[in-house]
Design a protein that fits this description.
13 helices; 69% helix; 0% strand; globular
């Protein structure tokens, strides 16, 4: 904790605060620290228990993803209120845990939009890697009906799922693009040069173009 405190930089804290995060440590420095610590599940759990976001990010890098129980991960997600901690928990830990599918189904239907966004993130992973058994038409129906009015984090996750369906499943591509064009979600999102817009029709078209060029 002392080492993390020494890495604190007010400029990083200011930038992170704009995205809803509450830590001021450069993520590259966090990764270097985690690399040095290597995998330590007990330390990871102690760091998580501090409630400090920088400590929690290190915890997620040094933990053993398969060592957590289902209820433990559910509790951790509900505590992870800042975007970066939430994102790393889902991507670095939950996706590698044997309870991922159970949690996907539980979170997808959760009334808390931040928890539901994790369910959508896990669904997007399945759309890309293991679509068998998913009702893609049903997912598009929900996105069409609910994405426009969804809170930010949930809307972002639904939009990613929409784009992934359009990118990976040619039979649904035209409908996915049409939904994106009509709802106009993230259409005006400021996109840096050399980055792909998160606006689904542009995202889908660009990624499909790259795949076809390979």
């Amino acid at each position: 904790m002392a080492e993390l405190a020494a890495l604190e930089d007010p400029k990083f804290r200011e930038v992170n605060a704009r995205h809803g995060d509450d830590h001021g440590v450069n993520l590259g420095k966090l990764r270097e620290l985690a690399k040095r610590l290597k995998t330590q599940q007990d330390l990871a759990q102690r760091l998580w228990a501090t409630g400090d976001s920088a400590a929690r990010l290190v915890a997620l890098l040094i933990c053993r993803p398969k060592a957590f129980g289902r209820d433990e991960l559910d509790a951790m997600l509900r505590e992870a209120r800042t975007p970066k901690v939430h994102d790393w928990l889902v991507n670095y830990v939950v996706k590698k845990n044997p309870h991922a599918e159970q949690l996907r189904l539980a979170w997808f239907a959760d009334p808390d939009p931040v928890v539901a966004s994790a369910g959508w993130a896990l669904t997007t992973e399945r759309v890309a890697k293991k679509p068998e058994g998913l009702d893609l038409v049903g997912l598009l129906d929900v996105i069409e009906a609910e994405m426009k009015g969804a809170p930010d984090r949930l809307q972002w996750a639904m939009n990613h799922c929409l784009a992934q369906i359009g990118i990976d499943h040619a039979e649904h591509r035209a409908r996915a693009i049409d939904i994106g064009e009509r709802l106009e979600v993230l259409k005006d999102y400021p996109t840096p040069p050399n980055c792909t817009s998160p606006f689904a029709p542009i995202w889908i078209t660009e990624l499909v173009r790259r795949q076809q060029e390979k």
